[in-house]
Amino acid sequence: MNEKNTLISYNPITDEIVGEVPISRADEIPILIRNAKRSQKKWGAMERKQQLITLSKLLSICVSRTDEICETICRETGKPFSEALNTEILASLTTIDWCIDWLRRQPNTMEIHQGKLQMMIRYLGRSSYIRYRPLGVVAIISPFNFPLAIPFTQAVMSVTAGNAVILKPSSKTPISGHLIESLFLEAGFPPNLVKVISGPEIGEALTLSDVDRIIFTGSSETGRKVMASASQRLTPVTLELGGKDAMIVTEDADLKRAASGAVWGAFVNSGQVCAAVKRLIVHKDIYSYFLDLVLFETEKLKQGNSLLDPDVSIGAMIDKEAVQKMEEQVGKAVHEGGRVLIGGSAPKIPGSFFQPTIISELPPKATMWKTETFGPILLVTSYEDDDEAVRLANDSDFALTASVWTRNLERGKRMASSIRAGTVMINNVLYTYGLPATPWGGSGESGFGRTHGQWGMMELMEPHHIHVDKGNFPHDIWWFPYSSEGLELNRDMINGLFAHKGVSRLSSLLNVRKGFKDQTRR
Ligand code: TXE
């Protein structure tokens, strides 16, 4: 923040200014919510055909502005251009495309089948249906590590479900965040339907404001604060929090492929990924051979500024504080008995870099096994049998994603089904974030709720239940006044629906129907 009341963003490699955005004050939020609600009405009143055209326009604008968007992300985060392309842009494009398809298929209403009661309810001239209605205004608070993909995919889904969005991006990546508003405006969405605001007060103020849902992505520590604030107004929250994800490698896995998967899964975005591979659990029989493969792959990784050198695979961390935190965490791990096999310090190049680091022999009780390391640090250990591997994978307060690597897919599915993580991949890591039809989210310290897919959509809408009764009968048999006759009828209802074979269920149901009919005499 400065005298111009703007938030400045710096390039973590060159320290150059990437750009600045205006800072909003907490007392502006009620006005913004009013504007958002007005826009939401406009958007809601738009023909579905027109909404689909607008979403398609957003898709083509993102495609046409790909390089500009990627460059902005690279300059603001220090991540390699290839990652901006495939983990930010691609994930965003697939989500728009999925939303278009979802909206096209979304029925206006859905009739509810009453199961065993269906026949009776029908006879009584009644029916129930659901129309999913948007919540209203969704507040999105997002982290720095995927400054486009995370808030953008959540915003596209929120708007597709009919909501307006107020987005607060990380103060470390405001330019990429504010770019999102320009994309929606350029595509022709009503102004203020997606509004991006920044400022040191805004995050907390938004969680205390009159929004209809909060989607928070960030650390478990901040997640608790958000939930506490949101409880003031009983605002529902979706919490996408940290991870300490496990990767199990069995002795029958394709080891070369698994080694490449482990290295990408652990060091993509310089390890600043909630679902990055943090705990490598390798079968004892292949432990040292596999570790050599992983070390060999890691040694080959080039670190630097990909805007100057496209062969760079490992970019920078978000800032110097993040690098310092890595140095402290590695120092503690070594102090607690861990052995650094590669990396373990900041390389001697300008910028906020930390070397890809692999630590072995860390005692199971050591801090780093339990705490999130939001950087390029991978812990390795071995296991005897599948049960132990699964136990080790579940031995964490975090439960976001995990993976099992084996050529025996049935074995993989068996192990996967016992792992607590929200998503378990067999022979792959991380990338289902880019499969918008699949749910994303975890439990425990990794939060709760889901973004993406039908499950994410369900958290952005309210199932509005309409029950219609044609009023064919003047009186329901469970209404006042109670009587012994009425009591018999209610017994018949229960017998008719749930009694054991002995009792004639049909005659009971016929009694009930007759009972409803006879009410007219009362
Ligand atoms: O998080 P922070 P960061 C997690 C990742 C790591 C963290 C890193 O595992 O733990 O995010 O991101 C705003 N009330 N995930 O450091 O500090 C803050 O300004 C309201 C998980 O950015 O928690 C920023 O915009 N908001 C994930 C946002 O919260 C507040 C994917 C996050 O900040 C606030 C990516 C407050 N009191 C990262 N204080 C997943 N599970 O999918 C700060 N903020």
Q: How does this structure look, described?
A:
This protein has helices at residues 29-45, 48-64, 66-77, 81-105, 118-123, 149-160, 174-186, 202-207, 220-231, 255-267, 287-299, 320-335, 367-370, 386-394, 409-417, 453-458, 484-498, 505-518, and strands spanning 6-10, 17-22, 110-111, 126-134, 137-141, 164-168, 194-196, 213-217, 237-240, 245-249, 277-283, 339-342, 357-360, 377-383, 398-399, 401-405, 423-426, 443-444, 447-448, 461-469. The protein is α/β, with parallel strands linked by helices. It is globular and about 90 Å long. The structure holds ligand TXE. Ligand TXE binds at residues 141-145, 150, 168, 170-171, 203-204, 207, 217-219, 222, 225-226, 240-243, 274, 372, 374, 400.
